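Ticket #4471: structure output looks truncated?

Reporter: J.K.
Steps to reproduce: submitted the chain below (262 residues) through the standard prediction queue, then opened the result file.
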Amino acid sequence: MLFDQAREQEGHGMFVKIRRNVGDSNSLVLVPVSNASEVGLRSPISSGECEMLFKILADDFSFPANDWKDRFKEFSENRRRNVRKAIKSGVEVGLASTREEFDSYYQIYVGWSERKNLPILPFEVIERALNLTGNRKLFLARFEGEIIAGVIIRTFPGGMIEYAANSSLPEYLKLRPNDLLQWRIVEWACGEGYKRYSLGGAHLFVRRMGGDIVPVYRYRLDRTLLHRHELKEALGRSGRNMFNALPGGLKSQVRRALGRHE
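Returned output as attached by the reporter:
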């Protein structure tokens, strides 16, 4: 998101929702608006101001993405090559709409989360989100009829779309389904009149899609001993910077050693 701040009505008081790291997990904490400054937060914006902000962001786009071919030209050569490989291999992408498709994606998501040692949301939570068809879309990649990867996006009609989640089967990554998923999402968004696509990050995979890197802001209070979450993020950034500075050939060797695909 462009900002991680939301208001919630609870009883007769207004609260601002913030994230706080507790132990080894993240939790949401509701703080009364009147006390927001005490935890280092600026006054939250109203829902009307939020709506206005998104409209401004949607209108402030010098070159509307009317031509999907222009967007493809902005992709890196590596990304364009991977998209062509996926298409040539027979990977197909389409929008999910049934409970069975949601369940197939969920099984992939569970496996992906287990490999990453991440908490797993109940199927009912995922299904409820995907049924919000006005602002959620699930794109699925299939190979020979089997669902092998999926991407969830959030949408703001007439303005922007935002990457929300991705899960895939590791044995099919060599077919580059995630590259094709992102390209089909761009095609779809252009056809639907969306003007921006926020990828929620600036790591190598998303930078290969072209576009501009813009700053995003979030509020967080790390209350773990020795600020473990902040330390982990700092070490991660240092590691990624060192990896990105390596020559291309050496990067490939490191990926193979780690069992990862480009």
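Triage note (M.O.): checked the attachment and the full token line is present. Residues 51 and 168 are 33 Å apart (CA to CA).
Status: closed, working as intended.
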